[in-house]
Write a structure and sequence with these properties.
Low-confidence stretches: none
Distance between the termini: 22 Å
Organism: Acidipropionibacterium virtanenii
Pfam family, one: Abhydrolase_6
Largest sheet: 4 strands, parallel
CATH topology of the largest domain: Rossmann fold
Strand content: 15-25%
GO molecular function: catalytic activity
Order of helices and strands: HEHEHHHHHHEHEH
Helix content: 40-55%
Structural class: alpha/beta
Protein name: AB hydrolase-1 domain-containing protein
Shape: globular
CATH architecture of the largest domain: 3-Layer(aba) Sandwich
Number of helices: 10
Number of strands: 4
Strand order of the largest sheet: 1-2-3-4
Protein backbone atom coordinates (compact mmCIF):
# COMPACT_ATOMS: atom_id res chain seq x y z
CA UNK A 1 0.00 0.00 0.00
CA UNK A 2 2.80 2.38 0.84
CA UNK A 3 4.44 1.82 -2.55
CA UNK A 4 1.12 2.74 -4.21
CA UNK A 5 1.24 6.19 -2.60
CA UNK A 6 4.80 6.72 -3.85
CA UNK A 7 5.70 8.59 -0.66
CA UNK A 8 6.29 7.86 3.02
CA UNK A 9 3.04 7.33 4.90
CA UNK A 10 2.02 7.27 8.54
CA UNK A 11 1.36 3.72 9.71
CA UNK A 12 -0.68 2.48 12.66
CA UNK A 13 -0.18 -1.08 13.79
CA UNK A 14 -1.86 -2.77 16.73
CA UNK A 15 -0.47 -5.75 18.62
CA UNK A 16 1.18 -8.09 16.08
CA UNK A 17 0.46 -5.48 13.43
CA UNK A 18 2.58 -2.99 15.38
CA UNK A 19 5.51 -5.39 15.32
CA UNK A 20 5.02 -6.00 11.58
CA UNK A 21 4.82 -2.27 10.82
CA UNK A 22 7.96 -1.63 12.86
CA UNK A 23 9.74 -4.56 11.19
CA UNK A 24 8.82 -3.25 7.73
CA UNK A 25 10.19 0.19 8.61
CA UNK A 26 13.38 -1.49 9.81
CA UNK A 27 13.65 -3.24 6.46
CA UNK A 28 13.52 0.08 4.63
CA UNK A 29 9.82 0.60 3.89
CA UNK A 30 9.47 4.41 3.81
CA UNK A 31 7.35 5.45 6.78
CA UNK A 32 6.62 9.06 7.72
CA UNK A 33 5.53 8.23 11.28
CA UNK A 34 5.01 4.94 13.10
CA UNK A 35 2.20 4.53 15.61
CA UNK A 36 2.77 1.30 17.52
CA UNK A 37 -0.21 0.29 19.62
CA UNK A 38 0.66 -2.21 22.35
CA UNK A 39 3.33 -4.17 20.46
CA UNK A 40 3.79 -7.54 22.20
CA UNK A 41 7.56 -7.55 22.67
CA UNK A 42 8.58 -9.66 25.65
CA UNK A 43 12.18 -8.44 25.69
CA UNK A 44 12.97 -11.94 26.93
CA UNK A 45 16.52 -13.08 26.46
CA UNK A 46 16.52 -16.69 27.61
CA UNK A 47 16.59 -20.14 26.06
CA UNK A 48 12.92 -20.83 26.82
CA UNK A 49 11.88 -17.71 24.90
CA UNK A 50 14.18 -18.65 22.02
CA UNK A 51 12.68 -22.15 21.81
CA UNK A 52 9.05 -21.01 22.09
CA UNK A 53 8.43 -20.21 18.39
CA UNK A 54 9.49 -23.71 17.28
CA UNK A 55 7.36 -25.33 19.98
CA UNK A 56 4.34 -23.23 18.99
CA UNK A 57 4.87 -24.01 15.29
CA UNK A 58 5.05 -27.72 16.05
CA UNK A 59 1.70 -27.45 17.85
CA UNK A 60 0.13 -25.60 14.92
CA UNK A 61 1.57 -28.11 12.43
CA UNK A 62 0.19 -30.99 14.52
CA UNK A 63 -3.31 -29.50 14.43
CA UNK A 64 -3.12 -28.35 18.04
CA UNK A 65 -3.89 -24.68 17.40
CA UNK A 66 -5.77 -24.26 20.70
CA UNK A 67 -2.75 -25.58 22.61
CA UNK A 68 -0.48 -23.15 20.74
CA UNK A 69 -2.72 -20.23 21.72
CA UNK A 70 -2.90 -21.24 25.39
CA UNK A 71 0.84 -21.98 25.59
CA UNK A 72 1.56 -18.54 24.15
CA UNK A 73 -0.81 -16.86 26.61
CA UNK A 74 0.84 -18.59 29.57
CA UNK A 75 4.51 -18.53 28.57
CA UNK A 76 4.81 -15.37 26.47
CA UNK A 77 2.01 -13.15 27.74
CA UNK A 78 2.36 -14.32 31.34
CA UNK A 79 -1.31 -14.96 32.07
CA UNK A 80 -2.01 -17.31 34.98
CA UNK A 81 -2.92 -20.86 33.91
CA UNK A 82 -6.25 -20.65 35.73
CA UNK A 83 -7.20 -17.50 33.79
CA UNK A 84 -6.23 -19.12 30.49
CA UNK A 85 -8.26 -22.22 31.32
CA UNK A 86 -11.28 -20.03 32.10
CA UNK A 87 -10.73 -18.15 28.84
CA UNK A 88 -10.65 -21.47 26.99
CA UNK A 89 -14.23 -22.09 28.10
CA UNK A 90 -15.57 -18.86 26.57
CA UNK A 91 -16.87 -18.22 23.04
CA UNK A 92 -14.07 -15.66 22.64
CA UNK A 93 -11.48 -18.44 22.70
CA UNK A 94 -12.96 -19.98 19.56
CA UNK A 95 -12.16 -16.70 17.79
CA UNK A 96 -8.52 -16.87 18.94
CA UNK A 97 -7.82 -20.41 17.73
CA UNK A 98 -7.74 -19.51 14.00
CA UNK A 99 -5.06 -16.93 14.88
CA UNK A 100 -2.68 -19.59 16.20
CA UNK A 101 -0.14 -18.98 13.44
CA UNK A 102 0.09 -15.34 14.51
CA UNK A 103 1.21 -16.31 18.02
CA UNK A 104 4.14 -18.13 16.41
CA UNK A 105 5.08 -14.87 14.71
CA UNK A 106 4.56 -12.90 17.93
CA UNK A 107 6.98 -15.20 19.74
CA UNK A 108 9.56 -15.09 16.93
CA UNK A 109 10.59 -11.50 17.53
CA UNK A 110 10.76 -11.01 21.32
CA UNK A 111 12.62 -7.72 20.96
CA UNK A 112 13.23 -5.17 18.20
CA UNK A 113 16.04 -6.07 15.80
CA UNK A 114 19.00 -3.77 15.22
CA UNK A 115 17.38 -2.62 11.96
CA UNK A 116 14.21 -1.76 13.82
CA UNK A 117 16.13 0.17 16.47
CA UNK A 118 17.82 2.15 13.68
CA UNK A 119 14.52 3.49 12.26
CA UNK A 120 14.73 7.28 12.13
CA UNK A 121 11.05 8.03 11.49
CA UNK A 122 9.13 9.41 14.46
CA UNK A 123 7.66 6.65 16.60
CA UNK A 124 4.69 7.02 18.92
CA UNK A 125 3.97 4.08 21.22
CA UNK A 126 0.32 3.84 22.22
CA UNK A 127 -0.67 2.18 25.50
CA UNK A 128 -4.25 1.69 26.63
CA UNK A 129 -5.61 1.18 30.13
CA UNK A 130 -6.40 -2.12 31.82
CA UNK A 131 -4.30 -4.06 29.33
CA UNK A 132 -2.17 -7.13 29.95
CA UNK A 133 0.83 -6.36 32.19
CA UNK A 134 3.26 -7.74 29.59
CA UNK A 135 1.97 -5.16 27.10
CA UNK A 136 2.44 -2.32 29.56
CA UNK A 137 6.00 -3.54 30.21
CA UNK A 138 6.61 -3.95 26.49
CA UNK A 139 5.54 -0.38 25.73
CA UNK A 140 7.60 1.02 28.59
CA UNK A 141 10.69 -1.01 27.64
CA UNK A 142 10.34 -0.02 23.99
CA UNK A 143 10.09 3.62 25.04
CA UNK A 144 13.31 3.22 27.06
CA UNK A 145 15.06 1.54 24.12
CA UNK A 146 14.07 4.37 21.75
CA UNK A 147 15.15 7.72 23.17
CA UNK A 148 13.34 9.61 20.41
CA UNK A 149 10.05 7.74 20.79
CA UNK A 150 7.00 9.09 22.54
CA UNK A 151 4.92 6.91 24.86
CA UNK A 152 1.30 8.07 24.87
CA UNK A 153 -1.30 6.62 27.19
CA UNK A 154 -4.72 6.35 25.60
CA UNK A 155 -7.04 5.69 28.57
CA UNK A 156 -10.06 5.17 26.32
CA UNK A 157 -8.37 2.11 24.78
CA UNK A 158 -8.98 -0.75 27.18
CA UNK A 159 -8.23 -4.46 27.43
CA UNK A 160 -5.89 -4.52 24.40
CA UNK A 161 -8.49 -2.91 22.13
CA UNK A 162 -8.14 0.38 20.29
CA UNK A 163 -10.61 3.18 20.91
CA UNK A 164 -10.87 4.57 17.38
CA UNK A 165 -11.86 8.13 18.29
CA UNK A 166 -9.18 8.60 20.94
CA UNK A 167 -6.48 7.01 18.78
CA UNK A 168 -7.49 9.19 15.84
CA UNK A 169 -7.09 12.28 18.03
CA UNK A 170 -3.58 11.20 19.08
CA UNK A 171 -2.53 10.50 15.48
CA UNK A 172 -4.07 13.67 14.08
CA UNK A 173 -2.32 15.81 16.69
CA UNK A 174 1.08 14.32 15.79
CA UNK A 175 0.63 14.56 12.05
CA UNK A 176 -0.61 18.15 12.05
Amino acid sequence: MISATDRPTAVLGHSSGAVLAYFAAGEGVPVRHLFLSEPPFSFADDRAAAALPARLQAMVDAGRAADAVTTFQIEAVGLPEQMVEQMRQTPMFAQLVPLAQSVVHDATLPRPSQNMLAVTSPITILLGDETFPILSRSCEQLDEALPGAELVRVPESKHHSIDAAATTRVITARLA
